[in-house]
Amino acid sequence: MRDLGELLSSAEGHLARATGTAATAGDGVPPRTRSLIRRRRATRHTFQSVAGVLVVGAVASGAWLGLRGPDAPPPATVPSATPSSSPSSSRSSTPSGTPTQDVAPVVLDELPGLPPTQPLPAGLLERTTPGWVLTVYRSQPYPGFDEEPVVVRHTVVLVSPAGERYRVVDLPPTSSVQVVDWVAGQTTALVHVVASDGEPSGAARGRAVLDLRTGTVTPAGAGVGAADDTYLGRSADGAEIWTSSAGLANDVHRVDDGSARRIGVVGQWPSLDPTGRWLVATAPGTGSSAGSFTLLDLGGDGGGARETGLAGLGCDVVGWLDAADVLLVCSDSTTDELPTSESAHPALWRWDVVAGGTPEHLTDLRTGDPYPWPGGSWVRPGALALGAGEVGTDGCGVGAYTWDGSFTLIQAPTDRLENTFLTRSQGGDTYVESSPGCSGDAAPAEVTLHRADGTSSVLAPVPPTTTDVTQWASGVVTWAVAR
Fold first, then answer.
1. Which one of 35, 122, 219, 278 is separated from 5 by 20 to 30 angstroms, measured CA to CA?
2. Which of 444, 312, 443, 432 has its CA nearest to residue 375?
3. How far is the C-alpha of 103 from the C-alpha of 85, rounded, in Å?
4. pLDDT tens digits along 196-233
5. Is the Cβ–Cβ distance between 59 and 426 less than 8 Å?
6. Distant-in-sequence, close-in-space partners of 36: CB < 8 Å, separation ≥ 6
7. SS3 call for 389
8. Do 113 and 447 touch, CB atoms closer than 8 A?
9. How far apart are CA 3 and CA 340, in angstroms?
10. Whether the Cβ atoms of residue 420 and residue 435 lie closer than 8 Å to each other
11. How far are the Cα atoms of 20, 55, 81, 120, 469 from residue 140, in angstroms, in the given order?
12. pLDDT band at 72 (very low <50, low <70, confident <90, very high)
């Protein structure tokens, strides 16, 4: 059977061009597997559950989350610092709060390569709360990668849960950083520097700390952070969990107090459980659609090899349902059919991977049903958010869903024809990164917050076109939700 890693192989070029990374040729990893693992994990905040990072903190459901303390700056319906006169501006027509109060409209700056933003008010970083989002726009025109890539804008943008966007600091256009962890209220973030072409020889590489006030990147290697290393999240006791890729085998490291220690080796699609104790992945040497898995105990001596025992079926872990059970999607491994084909008999199974044993069959998937991808994010006990293709198609995405025994669509493609959907969840809310990347052409991603109360906000939209740039190849390239 063709494994799931082959279904979206055309996405590799898009994701590599957009993030400045590339797969390693000849290592035996299916292109989409490497591409989506790198994109999904590298852009995780401290949970990600492209799979699960530890969920820490709560995000307010519904309207403006607010800031701590009585001196917190007001929401974006009230003016902030006056912008410079150089960029063009747009005005919001927000009405005043009372009939007698004269509140000036917010003035948003329109800068090439960014959505409308405003300057960062003094002290705002220090008063952010869990649920604020730190994004990085590294905007390149299309088709800039066919010639010499041109980075028009490389800027850190802070986004409130209500969608107000503030410019934090500009970064060198030649660098490429991935924000992997940020704690609310802090003025530094943990980043993974994946490229610094043209930077001085002493420029930071690998694991590093980004000063959000100055843009300074300080190396903090700790023995992890090479080009193919990936940050997964944090364990229950607060340690950073990283993997170092070696094809179909990945060393797993935990970083305590700046020092890395190898704790095991796994295969593909590593995923942390919602408590941060367990990590499950395919067994070393296996890729997607496997029958053999490895369970690592991140804080003890438990875990070990796990076999589904489902003869003739290849399975992928969609995500964790609780601290012991995972949702599997399995298809016939004895056929050459795509696993998304109904003739491959795809089905969902529930598996207590901690105890082992035989998975429980839940439901068969028929033509037209969502076919969930690995890397789903834990929302609440028994519920996942996930990107999915469709049974009977080639596997490209048709939307983002929640699954709690049945599928509920939370985000469908727009007129941008998105077909790649990656999810992260925190505090009961779900963040979806969507892009048209599965079709192979480079196109910017967009990040949307879907709250537990059913409302949603676009947090990181595609940069508007300009007279000089009629189409963007990339925009927001990495983001982290504050914990």
1. 278
2. 432
3. 21
4. 655 544 455 689 999 999 999 999 877 787 877 899 99
5. yes
6. 8, 11, 15, 50, 373, 375, 422
7. strand
8. no
9. 10
10. yes
11. 11, 32, 28, 23, 9
12. very low
Full-model pTM = 0.79
Neighbours of 242 (CB within 10 A): 27
Which amino acid, one-letter code, is at 218? T
Of 350, 200, 378, whose CA–CA distance to 276 is shortest? 378
Packing angle between helix 11-19 and helix 31-42, nearest 10 degrees?
Answer: 40
Nearest to 56 by CA among 183, 142, 171: 183
Q: Which residues pair with 137 in a beta bridge?
A: 155, 476
177: nearest Cα among 201, 143, 151: 151
Query: What tokens were used for 147?
Result: 């010639």
Which percentage of the chain shows pLDDT scores above 90? 59
* Per-residue pLDDT at 146: 53
Write out the two tokens for 177.
């950083």
Distance CA(77)–CA(317), nearest Å, equals 43
Q: How far apart are CA 205 and CA 203, in angstroms?
A: 7
Q: How many residues would you count in the chain?
A: 483
What tokens were used for 81?
A: 């610092």
* Spatial contact of 429 and 452, defined as CB atoms under 8 Å apart: yes
Q: Residue 201, Cβ neighbours under 10 Å: how many? A: 5
